[in-house]
Design goal:
By secondary structure, the protein is of the alpha+beta class. It is about 25% helix and about 35% strand.
């Protein structure tokens, strides 16, 4: 019986604290807006800076396709940077990049976490 009383008192205390405004809560809409502000916009051009974490894993048996680096950025989290695409494009700086290298990338956003340097000669990967 004593345990039930303690639980009831604790529950009422938490309710009173939350109702008093002592604990700030963000409405779900504001959290969504904050996350969207930091998301890459598909179709836009972007410059990112970050550290190479390694190469994107490829499906086994895939002989051709896109090759990408996994780059950790402060603004967008982990971004996959496509440096080679279907034998039509190959960026030598991207191909030579090693884990731990610091890069600057200017390219086109093709997905919420993917940037390519293969669709324009103006796009680049630069080692910092």
């Amino acid at each position: 019986m004593r345990l039930i009383e303690l639980a009831l008192i604790a529950g009422l205390s938490v309710g009173a604290i939350c109702a008093s405004g002592a604990i700030k809560r963000f409405p779900p809409e504001s959290v969504k807006v904050l996350a969207e502000d930091q998301a890459l916009k598909v179709g836009s051009e972007v410059t990112i800076k970050g550290e190479v974490l390694g190469r994107e894993k490829r499906r086994e048996g895939l002989a051709d396709g896109e090759f990408a680096l996994r780059v950790s950025t402060a603004d967008y989290g982990v971004v996959n940077v496509v440096y080679s695409s279907f034998r039509l494009c190959r960026n030598e700086v991207g191909a030579a990049a090693q884990e731990g290298d610091q890069l600057e990338v200017f390219g086109k956003v093709t997905n919420k976490d993917r940037v390519t340097v293969c669709t324009s000669k103006a796009y680049y990967i630069k080692k910092l």
